[in-house]
Amino acid sequence: MSVSKHQVMIKGVKDGLVFLLNDTCEWEILLQELQHKLEKTHQQILTGPIIHVHVKLGNREVTEEQKEEIRAIIRQKGNLLIQSIESDLRSQQEAGEPAPSITTLKGMIRSGQTLHHEGDLLYLGDVNPGGTITCTGNIYVMGSLRGMAHAGIDGDENAIIAASHMRPTQLRIAGIISRPPDEWGIEEAFMEFAYIKEGKMEIDKLHQLHRIVPESMMG
């Protein structure tokens, strides 16, 4: 069996089918073979009544857009119902293995500029008014945050935003937007962090962070 010709393996399980996708080949080749197997080589077993499908990605990291590409191909078969798309990387993290460490970047985000990062970010520098910083995880700004910051943009309400000097034009965590800083009731917003509590954004001093975030999540 040539590995290069079998990037997609389809196995029958008790409650349906498992699609095992090679985690080392190029993404486009993987999609092409998935399409080919659904249309040609496995047409007989992929027709008929509703079949539940679980997609296993191995140790491949994928974006939501890439997951959607897989969903779009499988949905072409109207009887295939996708139950899950899972990566072993996520399973390892959920099992308590170390998550990826925080990334450190430095510089200055000027008006009109946007910095986006996947994961947690420690930013050494200022975010000026009109500048934007977005992350899927937590945002820590060692400098002045005077622009807009959006943490947990994929919907993670456990994310936080912290800054040495917190005077942003706006903060967002997941889908929740902060009140304007003028309404925080804080004169000097130094070493503050924002977090979600009972569906609302709260601002507190950084030394209170340990009360909100379990130590295991703080590295």
UniProtKB/TrEMBL annotation:
Xref: SUPFAM superfamilies: Cell-division inhibitor MinC, C-terminal domain (SSF63848)
One annotated GO biological process: division septum assembly
Transmembrane domains' residue ranges: none
Keywords noted in UniProt: Cell cycle, Cell division, Septation
Gene3D superfamilies per record: 2.160.20.70, 3.30.160.540
Domain annotation Septum formation inhibitor MinC C-terminal: ranges: 105-203
Superkingdom per UniProt: Bacteria
InterPro entries reported in the protein's UniProt record: CAP/MinC_C, MinC, MinC_C_sf, MinC_N_1, Septum_form_inhib_MinC_C
Stored Pfam families: MinC_C (PF03775), MinC_N_1 (PF22642)
UniProt KW Cell cycle keyword: yes
Every Septum site-determining protein MinC N-terminal domain range: 8-85
UniProt record similarity statement: Belongs to the MinC family.
Subunit relationships: Interacts with MinD and FtsZ.
PANTHER family cross-referenced by the UniProt entry: SEPTUM SITE-DETERMINING PROTEIN MINC (PTHR34108)
Function in brief: Cell division inhibitor that blocks the formation of polar Z ring septums. Rapidly oscillates between the poles of the cell to destabilize FtsZ filaments that have formed before they mature into polar Z rings. Prevents FtsZ polymerization.
Protein name in UniProt: Probable septum site-determining protein MinC
Gene designation per UniProt: minC
